[in-house]
Amino acid sequence: MVDPIATIGCSVVVMSRSTLLLVISFAIAAAAPCVRAQVQTEQPLDDDPSVILELGAATSWNTTGGAASFAPNLAAETTPIENWLELEAGVSPFFTRNSTEWDTDLLFKKPWTLTRKAEFMLGIGPEWVYLRQKGTTSNSIAGEVAGDFMFWPTGKHRFGWYLEPAYDYNFMSGHQQSIGISAGLLIGVHRKHS
Prior knowledge:
The chain is α+β, with helices and mostly antiparallel strands. 19% of the residues lie in helices and 57% in strands. The protein has a single domain, classed as Porin (Beta Barrel). The chain has two helices and eight strands; from the N terminus they run ααββββββββ. A hairpin with a 2-residue loop joins strand 4 and strand 5 (118-133). The protein is elongated. The termini are far apart. 24% of the residues are buried.
């Protein structure tokens, strides 16, 4: 006999993954025409920050069930290859009554400038997961795919906000999969010019 609750849960997981992939695909399709115009809309290099700090909150939901967990989120991002590659290193500590989990990731992102005030980046990279649960600890490696929407209200890359949906796949311990999102404040750190 088929359990109707399990069937609904599986449908929600498939729909959530499909929705996330649809959002990322739509954002890429919307960004593609802007790549040619990027040279014209791009800010001068002097105005671009050398590092962007992300301070916010994150939530993660295991696709096999369980309650969503919440965490503070801290990340730093830099641009080694202008218009082609951005690197982001981040950490999120998730605390629940029975466990503590630290997710640390390194994403390699392709940026697209949509307008002077909006950017989109698609990133992929490794993630290290440290889990302490019921007195035992484990370390595992996961992979992460994330879309990163950045909004700069004044057009200057000093302060803004971000929204970053993500999908994680753990290569160890049962191949746990999760869907999450983080959001918060962007702070552009600019070089001092002499």
